[in-house]
Amino acid sequence: MSLSEINPFAAGDSVRHRLRPLGANWPWMLLPALLFFTAFWLLPFARLLQIGMTEDRTTHHSGYWTVISQPQYLQSLLNTVLLSAAVTLVTLLIAAVVGCFLARQRFTGRGMLLALLTFPLAFPGVVVGFLMVMLAGRQGVLAQLSLSLFHERWVFAYSLSGLFIGYLYFSLPRAIVTLVAASEKLDRSLEEAARSLGASQWRIIVDVIMPGLKPALLSCGALCFATSMGAFGTAFTLGTELAVLPLTIYGEFTNYANFATAAALSVVMGAVAWLALMLANGLARRRERSS
Q1: Do 88 and 94 form a contact (C-beta atoms < 8 A)?
Q2: Backbone conformation region of residue 104, classed left if phi is above 0, alpha if psi is from -120 to 50, else beta
Q3: Which residues are 55's β-sheet partners?
Q4: Which residues have C-beta within 8 Å of that of residue 266, sequence separation ≥ 6?
Q5: pTM assigned to the model
Q6: Are 179 and 213 in contact (CB under 8 A)?
Q7: CB-based contact 242:166 (threshold 8 Å)
Q8: pLDDT < 50: residue spans in the chain
Q9: What does the alpha-carbon distance between residue 67 and residue 3 come to, in Å, rounded to a whole number?
Q10: What are the φ and ψ backbone dihedral angles of 62, each rounded to 5 degrees?
Q11: What is the pLDDT of residues 48-65, one digit of tens each?
């Protein structure tokens, strides 16, 4: 797998060296993309920025000031960031182990196992939430089992813990696909060389395997974080009372018609996700320059 396949952000420098000089007609070649960008992103986002500056219906301050001054919005933002970060870390940890194992081992049923692990890729967030309810909801498998064994229902589908597992279920297949492909392209001779020099398995993982997987981990982690920040379907299925930004925005927009705060929250959420993507981009470029 090329660097651009593993991490599209990191391939910028190497791609630029292969670019030919642009002809005089190059602006016309970009026109369709520029029109699409302007119509479907730039203009709506500019309007969203402007609405966020208008007066909130309850605080009578601007939407942005309301977001940073009201505890419930800050708590929603903090919950979303922490939840997304936790999902990203656990996803990368599990996917890296599974990806390395599947890339190095050949056994009967390997293809079927990989297909089953990536099967949830076809599911939208609503279905993932429904599966979470079937697992840990009031009538779920876990509740029925705990009721028969301990005479009490174990239910956590409608909490942040349930949302964490739902997001994990949603993110893992994508990360596994990426990291299996990245692990298959690692240079095994480097590991053999390190092993012949007496390096322990732990040192090989830290000094050889992890640096080789770093571009894939960065891009995969950034996308996982951004996806978890804005995931709505799973959260909406599990409960509208959860204090996470997608549901808070939905509530402000539909229940209270508080467009200023909804717009400000949307801009803040987009900015946090964008910063995560730019951070991954910067780290990947830094690694590209140092290699």
Answers
A1: no
A2: alpha
A3: 62
A4: 48, 52, 249
A5: 0.81
A6: yes
A7: no
A8: 1-17
A9: 39
A10: -65, 160
A11: 899 999 988 888 889 999
